Amino acid sequence: MRVAILGAGSIGGFVGGCWQAAGLDISFIGRPAFARDIARHGLVLSDYDGWSATLPAADVAYGIDPATLADADLIVLCVKSGATGDAARQVADHARPGTAVLSLQNGISNVDVLREILGPGFPVFRGMVPFNVAYLGNGQFHKGVAGQLYADDVPAMRQLSAAIGPSPAAVNLSQDMLGIAWGKLLINLNNAINALSGQPLLPELRNRGYRRVFAASMREGLTLLKSAGIRPAKVGAVGPRLLPWVIAAPDLLFNSLFLKGWKIDDRARSSMADDLARGRKTEVDFINGEVVGLAERLGRDAPVNRRIVALVNAAENGAGPLQPDALCRAALGRQR
Predict the structure, then answer these.
(1) Which Gene Ontology MF annotations are present (predicted)?
(2) Are 268 and 201 in contact (CB under 8 A)?
(3) Containing domain of residue 140, as a range?
(4) In the prediction, which pLDDT does 236 show?
């Protein structure tokens, strides 16, 4: 199976690198800066548990030309959600009809966008990435949070999962990928909180003020999902209905009991925090904005997530990090 990673940034670089280390034939398509770094240093992979692997530069097919898609049996889409339409058109222009497409993107609506643009000629499958990857420079991609990938339980994905085997980027299969996607999105609501805090994940999560905003955004999302008849799946050790109560627990309880069980290392940070740090447009419209959009479709409001979207938009335009009390006031209308 020849696999092309389209949008091989932090997630795509790590996932594709792990799959190549497992023996798959991988080509990477991404930004020139990544191509230059990997050409100089190779592809260096590591995770929170001490695992590491290095692929020599000469063995890594990392380029910037989407014409590479013509050789792929499977295209794995890792572009930011705002670039989904452009990526779909690249697939349509360069890939062979019938090539399977797996979306490993944040949010809910990307699969619908892909299917609308690509039509029936390209089977599109939903995937889910439960972990964060930080690019540390010099070709090194670091997985800082525990978790394994999920994908639709269909023959093409079964073949992929079997080919990868045990790996830091192993693929589990599910027949409820929409439920898993919503379960993951509820957890991803913290991406914006982490970005607005200006801190790595661990110190942000250790602070109850930040967690209260996270929990409030989750409760709002859960209320709307119930009204819409959507059941989010359990992603991780705690189910979605219980998770807001765990998140909002007092610091002593949360930090000593819950956070210790979540495998997060000191270098982990959200992709949204990375985007803000690099001056790039974030995916907040496809994470918290999905909750706002669901509320609008139901004729309701989602004030917490709507305010968080506005705060991230302000940060994209230069606003600085927010302390816990300031974020509580801005997002919840009260102090912690």
Answers:
(1) 2-dehydropantoate 2-reductase activity; NADP binding
(2) yes
(3) 2-175
(4) 79
